[in-house]
Description:
The complex is a heterodimer. Chain A is mostly beta strands. Chain A has one domain (5-114): Sandwich (Immunoglobulin-like), CATH 2.60.40.10. Chain A has strands at residues 5-7, 10-13, 19-24, 31-37, 44-50, 53-56, 65-68, 75-79, 88-95, 105-106, 110-114. Chain B is mostly beta strands. Chain B has a single domain, classed as Immunoglobulins (Immunoglobulin-like), CATH 2.60.40. In chain B, the strands form 3 sheets. In chain B, strands 2, 5, 6, 10, 11 and 12 form a 6-stranded mixed sheet that branches. The termini of chain B are far apart. The relative contact order of chain B is 0.34. The chains are: A mainly beta, B mainly beta. The A-B interface holds A 3-4, 9, 33, 40-45, 48, 56, 58-59, 91, 93, 100-101, 103-109 and B 4, 32, 36, 41-46, 49, 51, 90, 92, 94, 99-102, 104-107.
Amino acid sequence: EAGVVQSPRYKIIEKKQPVAFWCNPISGHNTLYWYRQNLGQGPELLIRYENEEAVDDSQLPKDRFSAERLKGVDSTLKIQPAELGDSAVYLCASSRLAELTDTQYFGPGTRLTVL
Amino acid sequence: AQSVTQLDSHVSVSEGTPVLLRCNYSSSYSPSLFWYVQHPNKGLQLLLKYTSAATLVKGINGFEAEFKKSETSFHLTKPSAHMSDAAEYFCAMYSGGGADGLTFGKGTHLIIQP
Lengths: 115, 114
């Protein structure tokens, strides 16, 4: 089966510019996650969707970050405006079940550099 | 507080020798524990997971890990390292009790010497 697809793989922008990341989860996976991975750190959860509903967005900086999952399939994560500290790898993952013990399958990530 | 600590930021072993990557956790509940591997420019891949069944868990590529509640540890081992094992390894935990998601350690970079 095809894995989790993310685009773009790399993005370089200047601070205060907007940026968007796209994720296509594995077919049939109802749960989708967005993580941020800072250099030298493990991933940190930003938001979790069950179908099209955001069930956990407590770690999402809502002043500049937004996310959507239209029709419960693809998802987009947006930052507006970007800050220098947003430079990181943004990972998307999906799982078949809603239980957090279910295996999460990760995409390759989008590496964002904010200048 | 829930946390995962990977005790070594870098581990270097010779090809063909055993691998030990250490992970300790702190949780108020009975956790589920995971090991993921990340090769350069690739997504994280699940190696194995513990979810309250057998304490010795076997995973892919010859890796295994043992859940030791008394030591709050979940160390990853492999009897014989291969060059292709060189990667970043992450220990992660779902602590339950309504936790938001997986808590990851900072990672251990595994270096394989020829």
